[in-house]
Design brief:
- The chain is mainly alpha-helical and 321 residues long.
- The chain folds into three domains: 101 residues, no CATH class; 160 residues, Four Helix Bundle (Hemerythrin (Met), subunit A) (Up-down Bundle), CATH 1.20.120.1730; 44 residues.
- The protein contains eight helices and two strands.
- α4 runs antiparallel to α7.
């Protein structure tokens, strides 16, 4: 005997297979994380390029340019000492400094291709200085003939100047005292060179050329150091902006991804579960004794096939009753 009213249940199961729909749902949930991962890898790659350029190119070139200036100054100091004392040891020290300077410039050429022309120009100036120094040594001749008494007078005057400076040290800061000492050292070198040149006509003739060529090397090295340090600062600033932009972009994309993933987590499972809920209600309705159950089926797949089987079972039970 049939009781109750007829009730219709809608079983909508778009798609072909429940298993595939579940797999698609999980795949979509995972795919929404792809933009975050992609952006993170992109910004890490960009940051790696900048850091690599700073560590392996710009900073080493800056250091090498500074070392080039130091080696050129060492060569000039050895040159002055040689002409003062005519000791072959200082000539050898001059050659060693120049050799190291040329090695440094070659390393700069290999590290920074954009500075290759500058390094080549500096090398040409170093070779010119080397030739000029060799010619000056050849013209200077054998040791002897230096103005010893005048050099001694310069040394005594330098000692008196240092004594006066030390007596005034209490009225100066540490930085001012260091600057004064450096100034005194530079002036001492200049006075010694002037004293030696005054007693040697050959040196008076070759010193300006040596000074000019060495000064050009120092100027090139200084410009190179300035440009390299500027690139370091530019790369550092670019890295800061990139990090700031990465934080904002990743935060926004992560937020959107979170919202999208939450929405997908609610929508897709609902599309999968809703037909099963409708089917369960239909079975419960029939289990309560009301076999007037109708199914409106759309789609195909496991859920639709199960609904057809349930409909056949309920119809068979209804006929038996």
């Amino acid at each position: 005997m049939e009781l109750g009213l007829s009730r219709s249940f809608k079983i909508f199961a778009p798609g072909s297979s429940l298993r595939r729909r579940v797999a698609y749902s999980l795949a979509i949930v995972r795919l929404v994380l792809v933009p975050v991962i992609f952006l993170a890898v992109y910004y890490l790659f960009r940051m790696g390029i900048i850091v690599d350029r700073i560590v392996n190119v710009d900073a080493p070139v800056t250091t090498l340019a500074e070392q080039a200036s130091v080696r050129m100054l060492d060569a000039r100091r050895a040159e002055r000492s040689y002409f003062l004392l005519r000791d072959p040891q200082y000539r050898q020290a001059n050659q060693e400094s120049l050799t190291q300077l040329k090695e440094i410039l070659d390393r700069i050429r290999n590290l920074a291709p954009e500075e290759q022309q500058t390094a080549l120009e500096a090398l040409e100036r170093v070779k010119l200085y080397e030739k000029q120094f060799a010619a000056a040594v050849s013209e200077a001749g054998s040791p002897g003939g230096t103005a010893v008494e005048r050099v001694q007078e310069v040394v005594r005057a330098y000692e008196r100047d240092l004594d006066d400076l030390l007596r005034q040290a209490r009225r100066k800061t540490r930085a001012q005292l260091i600057d004064s000492l450096r100034s005194r050292v530079n002036s001492f070198d200049t006075q010694i060179a002037s004293t030696v040149e005054a007693g040697d006509p050959t040196l008076r003739r070759v010193t300006p050329a040596l000074q000019a060529s060495s000064q050009q090397v120092l100027q090139i090295a200084s410009d190179l150091e300035t440009r390299s340090w500027g690139r370091v600062q530019h790369d550092h600033e670019e890295a800061r902006h990139l990090l700031y932009r990465a934080e904002w972009v990743l935060s926004i994309v992560s937020g959107l991804t979170l919202v999208l993933s939450v929405w997908i987590s609610f929508v897709l499972p609902r599309q999968v579960v809703k037909p099963l809920v409708e089917l369960r209600e239909a079975v419960d309705h029939a289990a309560s004794g009301n076999y007037l159950v109708d199914f409106e089926l759309r789609g195909e797949g496991e859920v639709v096939e199960l609904a057809k089987s349930v409909r056949s079972l309920i119809a068979h039970v209804r006929e038996a009753v």
